[in-house]
Specification:
The complex is a heterodimer. Chain A is of the alpha+beta class. Chain A folds into 2 domains: 80 residues, Alpha-Beta Plaits; 59 residues, SH3 type barrels (Roll), CATH 2.30.30.30. Helix content of chain A is 21%, strand content 31%. Chain A contains 4 helices and 9 strands; from the N terminus they run E-H-E-E-H-E-H-E-E-E-E-E-H. In chain A, the strands form 2 sheets. In chain A, strands 8-7-6-5-9 form a 5-stranded antiparallel beta sheet. In chain A, strands 2-3-1-4 form a 4-stranded antiparallel beta sheet, with helices on one face. In chain A, a hairpin with a 4-residue loop joins strand 6 and strand 7. The termini of chain A are far apart. Chain B is mainly beta. Helix content of chain B is 8%, strand content 34%. Chain B has a 3-stranded antiparallel beta sheet, with no helix packed on it. In chain B, a hairpin with a 5-residue loop joins strand 1 and strand 2. Classes of the chains: A alpha+beta, B mainly beta. The interface between A and B is medium-sized, with 37 and 20 residues. Strand 2 of chain A pairs antiparallel with strand 4 of chain B, so a sheet runs across the interface.
Chain lengths: 165, 61
Amino acid sequence: MENTVAEEAPKSSIFSIKTQVGKEQNTADLLNSRAKKGKLDIASILVTPELRGYIFVEAFDEELIKNTIKTISYARNMLEGSIPIDQIEHFLTPTSAVAKITEGDVVEMIAGPFRGEKAKITHIDYAKEEITVELLESMVPIPITVRGDQVRIIKRKDDEKREER
Amino acid sequence: MKTLNACKDCHYLTEKDRCPLCSEQTVNRWRGYVIVLNPEKSQIAKKMNITKPGKYALKVS
């Protein structure tokens, strides 16, 4: 049997890139196509829903990434230095979109046709990560079901109770 | 614009109704986005047990 010593592959570094908010996925796609076209040595690109306005790029050459993002208009700049994998590991298993929401919370719709409207949570579907809300300013309470990440909590039910006391 | 669906099993993102990697059904409810270009060299791919390059979702519901 041949005794071949496996060559130690150079360890990749993870860099964070500041992007236009809401254009994280587009930036990742553009960087992906640039990497494929230019045969750039990029290992992976990570877009996490918990961190808006930033993406992580796993690569080997910092300068190469810096130069590549100059051609992507959605990418703002790159943060100096790399991040150890342990610090972004928790992003790889995202928490449920409805984990922090409870029935009775007042939320603001941040996407869809009711964007900007305030609403109260009436039901939470944990399996589908969907919530049912009733718009506060609506004359007739019509239940609307939206995705859990389409709302932002502005007042928790517990806060209301505390105020009453 | 093309919509991507995620495989329920391996989280691979595809436009098709069935995953081309494991032929499992795909769904359009997914969050998080990872593009793996080089799974052998990627630490993220190793953590996620990804062995084939492509686009993946972090969470599929």
